[in-house]
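Protocol step 6 of 9: fold each sequence in the batch and record its structure tokens directly after the sequence line. For illustration, a two-sequence batch is reproduced in full.

Sequence one:
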Amino acid sequence: MKKIDLNDPKLKGKYYDVNDEGTEFSIPPRDFLDLGIEKVDEDLSLFVCNSTGCSNQVKITDRGNAEYAWYYLDNLSETDATITIERRWIYEGSWRRETAQCRLYPGEIREVFSFPRNQNPMCCITVCSLTNVNNR
């Protein structure tokens, strides 16, 4: 496997960790440090992975390139959305997953997960709810 370029500008200011060989991320690069990564024995690629939520008003899209997947969450609704996502990837031959929750304002688009494609990344919406603007 090819070594990860730790001087890549995409990694500047991000939290991440790599294996001893420097070829795989053990946690995805992110702007925040999130705990609760879980090793999973099942093949997570066989489980449902929803790319939409809230009656198709919230979507995850992959806007990456051949090397990296860059997943963006897009709130197409006219109200705030609270979304729980599950990030999945393979590390040292086993699936890993973590959950994260975020709130998006109407029309907001946010990058929520970026990862090398050789580690089979997936990003799924697990829970989605829209908030009535009048109840803010």
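Sequence two, same batch, same settings:
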Amino acid sequence: MKKIKKLFNIFWIQLYLELKLQIRYVNSAISSLVLYAGAFLVVILFTNPA
């Protein structure tokens, strides 16, 4: 019974760390995407002679 509980705890910790890593990756991807989109818009707005 103790062995199963230990395995279960290890599994949960791994899952938690994996999720944290995924969330960090997704956040950085979204922020870089926003940054690129912003730069793209600035370039379009300021190079277009309106």
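Proceed to step 7 once all outputs are recorded. Observation for sequence two: The first helix runs from residue 2 to 47.
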